[in-house]
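Supplementary notes for students who missed Thursday's class. We covered one full example, reproduced here. Read the sequence, then the structure, then the short commentary at the end.
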Amino acid sequence: MHGMDNWDDLKFVLAIANAGNVTKAARALGVTHSTVSRRLSALEDRLGTRLFDRLPDGFKPTVAGEEAVSAARRVETEVFALDTRITAQDTDLEGPLRVTAAQLLFQVQVAEIMQKFSERHPRIELEMIAANEKLSLHRREADVAIRVTNNPDENLFGRQATGQNRTFYMSKEFARRNREAMDVSHDNADLPCVVFKWWGRNVPKEIRARYPKAYVSLVSDDMIAMLAAIKAGMGIGRLPCFLGDPDPELVRVPGMEPSRYLDIWVLTHPDLKNVTRIRTFLRFAADSFKASSDLYLGRT
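Structure (token representation):
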């Protein structure tokens, strides 16, 4: 072969440009580090020019590399568009269906939704893609996304499945140890708080107003880890009601009313909304969430 007569080379070029280094590109492509390095070196040898400068902080496209990356993006866009148009012609209740959601949602309800859907439609080949980062429906990284947001992408099609509330919880043992503070003396209670990094690193204002001497004992960047810390008695923490209410080891902090949290949406690419298996799953999943809305809204 001479030059760039293998279209697959563009996929490697684009992955390196998007990732910024070979290791992350290999992870995104599902291949080894050495495979990516070998394919890039072989392509550069055939073209007789470097496509990327190897810098201490990552790979930066050269002028020739920018041309290759631009071409790769155009090819990718056309391939995804063609795939979407072909899939949109599918009218059967069979074939693949890829569903992405945060790991926590799979654990709480999405896995159950998929199991019941599979019982009804056994010829549909379901795939779970558990990812806390948002996969792109436009790039066909998934067919359906279940998102926790108040502002879904306006270029996607779907419906709000349920609203959510959140409130403050503590372990039963923590409540026993701090019974006096919970019942009587708020002002003098040095109560520890577990906080979620993405909601802020300070004592929540609702806790500060009720317990002025409260302090942060732990910052967590993961909801499951935060749940574990609260259950271990490390302090008061705010959780979505669907996570805190069903747990037999937790109780709500008295005097704290639930507050609005992010909605749950079930979404797909607009060109796929009439694909029978996708449309059927969208309706089934949204109805399942709606049937469990008391859990998500904290109506105990």
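Commentary. The longest strand covers residues 157-171. Residues 85 and 271 are 7 Å apart (CA to CA). If anything here is unclear, bring it to office hours.
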